Amino acid sequence: MFIQENFSLQAHNTFGIAAQARFFVTVTNGEMLLEALAYAQQHHLPLTLLGGGSNVLFTKNIEGLLVQIANKGMVVEKEDEDFVWVRVAAGEVWHDFVQFAVKNNWGGVENLSLIYGTVGAAPMQNIGAYGVEIKAVFEYLEAIELSTQTKKVFDKTACQFGYRQSIFKQSLKNQVVITQVVFKLTKRNHVFNTSYGAIQQVLNEKNLSPSIQNISEAVIHIRQSKLPNPEVLGNAGSFFKNPEIPTEQFLQLQAQYPQIPNYAAEIAGYTKVPAGWLIEQCGWKGKKVGNCGVHKDQALVIVNYGGATGAEIWAVAEAVQQSVAEKFGVVLHPEVNCF
Ligand code: FAD
Ligand code: NAP
To answer: Which of 151, 168, 186 is the last residue of a domain?
Structure first.
């Protein structure tokens, strides 16, 4: 096990923040992980977990040991005529898994094409896009509980998945390391989700019928044309979750702002309002503050124009939160994990 000291995290977070980890190790198998956990325990080092760094904001240096999860492997665990159960190591790149599924014509994750990060971090916030969340294809996951260093299995119910939420982002935050995830994909009778207008529009423009491959390509096309590429402009995707507010509160807002977009929330009696719209109405879209700011096309994305610190980005996020709270009485909650 190779533990590095005062390790720069700049290349390991999509915001491109030049924070450092006091100690850093990449683990590629279960044995290394247990070794790293034992090392942290022996040396009384706080432990921080990292996958691809696409949903984190480092507002300071990381004290203790930062463990990057990088185990690999994608295998078919079992299959029948209708379904295939694929076991994927936490360190696999999420989009590589999606491409593996698409190539095999297995359905369920095509709408989740081109989401950044690793498979192990995906259940953390029940990743979702274009009308699909991983909970729809999730079977179970394996994790190591930090306090006991023993293996635990979480089925779908145990994960307590919600909108960009799970038990791993709440009561079990920093308590377990997800090591393997098993997904159940369709081999036939696929159920396509083209409810997001943009997908259907791209299929129509290209005169394509919905298929696993075509939907994946449409989503890739839309994402590449709409979202800032972190390799060019540092960002972590949506900084805030779309707020789900009581429908009663929404109706009061609608009376004042008749054009306010809205969607049904997962919870009955609540309405989802796009945070990007609220932020744009507060005049933040395209606003630059020092080396960072709000993206010119996607108000939900905070960007690092180069050289911004995590604290500077966080200050912009707080200012955005304050504006939205003052104008609309709506609290925005960060989706990004801040350290
Ligand atoms: P990291 O950023 O490394 O970590 C995220 C959190 O998970 C941290 O708290 C970390 O401690 C913890 N963690 C990481 N690995 C493990 C593990 N194995 N076990 C336990 N805890 C762990 N998200 C969406 O849901 N939908 C989108 O459409 C989407 N689009 C994006 C677009 C862009 C341009 C970017 C930059 C991000 C986007 N995201 C999206 C956010 C991000 O891609 C996902 O949240 C992704 O799952 C994060 O994976 P990661 O490996 O980079 O996690
Ligand atoms: P968009 O299409 O401009 O829509 C703005 C918001 O409205 C979305 O966030 C979405 O909520 C909601 N919405 C739009 N159409 C909807 C529908 N038919 N049903 C329910 N809700 C709808 O969004 P975008 O920014 O280009 O992103 C497209 C998709 O990619 C979204 O699902 C978004 O969540 C996902 N994405 C996520 C991240 C991230 O970092 N988390 C980054 C980029 C894109 P939902 O977010 O709930 O879907």
So the answer is: 186
